[in-house]
Amino acid sequence: MLILVASYVFYGWWDWRFLSLILLSTLVDYYVAQNIGRQDDKRKRKQWLWVSVIFNIGLLGFFKYYNFFIDSWVDMFSMFGYHITSTWTLKVILPVGISFYTFQTMSYSFDVYYKKLKPTTDFLSFAAFVSFFPQLVAGPIERASQLLPQIEKKRVFNYEQSTQGIKLILWGSFKKVVIADSFGFMVDDIFQNYQNYPASTLILGALFFSFQIYGDFSGYSDIAIGTAKLFGVELMSNFKFPYFSRNIGEFWRRWHISLSSWFKSYLYIPLGGSQFGNVKAIRNIIIIFLVSGLWHGANWTFILWGALHALMFIPLYLLGVNRTHKYKNLGVYKTLKGWLQEWSQIILTFSIVTILWIFFRSESIQTAFDYFYVIGENFNFEAYLHPKGYRMIDYYLLLIMFIVYEYLIRRDERSPIPFKSKYIRFFTYTMLIFGMLLFYESNIDRSFIYFQF
Fold first, then answer.
1. What pLDDT does residue 82 have?
2. pLDDT under 50 in the chain at which residues?
3. Which of 143, 227, 420, 440 has the lowest CB atom count within 10 Å?
């Protein structure tokens, strides 16, 4: 009950009116699951499942994509000379985290349908599962089969689990405040004024955005996972050092894992996965990446970003190397040749991901291509000066130290401060807190990027 009340207060603090959406989604999926559980007939079970899918996708579609599709429809007719006044658009406020909690509550109906979970009779526990405040607004997107049983059972305080949680909160806060917010200020400057900067600065802007979005999103995930640990709840890992990936396939096994695995379980596999030949497998891969791009926002930039990732992934699938690299094998090399090969793969993959982030960050597809055009047209080097006059060398050193530290702790994403020596741990705590005090600025936008999704 405490978790449920805290979660509703937490979300209602932003706008209490949108609590009705969470409650409505909770009631629908609770009722749907009850009916799925009572049915033995597969056809009727599927009919009830479709009720959940249509309701939640409809809810998401209205608040997030209604104006996007109306505007796209008008633009399409304009291309053929038919000018339609877009009078059907609405001033719709996008509820924070709607993409996350609609997918989470749908997972419950799916898990009951696939008989991975029996429908619960405890409505309060189910409501707490849907609205669990640590990960409500930006994930990880939890499966009902994993999170709901933890909420239903009695939990007791665990000292070790709590200390792990506090470490994750500290590390996540550092990534948000020091990495994401510090570099985000420069990213905004470069992307908003890209016409006035040389290629070296635009490349730097794309590089900085790569670390801004990683520090922002993975930082939130760490804070969410750490906070959940304080309540005796274990959430799934959402990031496993994705920028050390050796190809795009590995990148998507390390980046936003909860969303990737959700699409795999509830869309890719039901579509047939890779069981019916390469043609259908490629079709399914394209669908997954396009839907993933659309999930991120109502803009063609996200759809193109997803399509380009699909184009990078498909050759790996056809060559059978999309799952070659295993997470635990990172950094295991015995020769200089092996070391050079691994790092060349990491740098190449990171470069591809960074280039594609330009589409993700740009306001429109035209702006993204203009960004690339300026890089090609004004290909020269000039030192970038911080808009507020700060020393750039401090940021370059910070970025290098961050990369090195992440590589040192790459074995376990849930242990960001894994040192056995209490003196080294104390030193690390001190440096993280000092870094947040040093780089903190009160007059910048500190909202999380993924709150808009």
1. 56
2. 77, 89
3. 420
* pLDDT score at 261: 93
> Residue 418 is encoded by which pair of tokens?
């894994």
User: Alpha-carbon torsion 58, 59, 64, 67, what sign?
Assistant: positive
Helix, strand, coil shares of the chain as percentages rounded to 5?
70, 0, 30
pLDDT the model gives residue 67: 64
Comparing C-alpha atoms, which of 223, 219, 207, 256 is closest to residue 400?
A: 207
Query: Which amino acid, one-letter code, is at 232?
Result: G
Q: What is the pLDDT of residue 441?
A: 79
| Spatial CB neighbours of 100, under 8 Å, sequence gap ≥ 6 | 135, 136, 137, 138, 139, 141, 453
Can you read off the two tokens belonging to residue 112?
């009951």
Element (H, E) at 266: none
Residues 110 and 141 sit within 8 Å (Cβ to Cβ) = no
Q: Which residues contact 174 (CB under 8 A, 6 or more apart)?
A: 219, 432, 435, 436
List of residues 6+ apart from 444 with CB closer than 8 A:
181, 184, 185
- The distance between the two most distant Cα atoms of the chain, rounded to a whole number of Å, is 71
d(CA 340, CA 453): 38
Provide the annotated active-site residues: 296
Tell me how far apart the alpha carbons of residues 250 and 328 are, in angstroms, rounded to a whole number: 12
Sign of the C-alpha dihedral, residues 409, 415, 419, 422?
A: positive
At 69 the pLDDT is 58
- b/e 171-197 (16+ beta carbons within 10 angstroms → b): bbbbbbbbbbbbbbbbbbbbbeebeeb
Predicted local distance difference test score (pLDDT) of residue 91: 62
What pLDDT does residue 79 have?
Answer: 52
Query: Measuring CA to CA, how many Å separate 3 from each of 27, 136, 188, 228?
Result: 18, 12, 37, 10
User: How high is the pLDDT of residue 313?
Assistant: 96
Residues 203, 350: contact at Cβ < 8 Å?
A: no
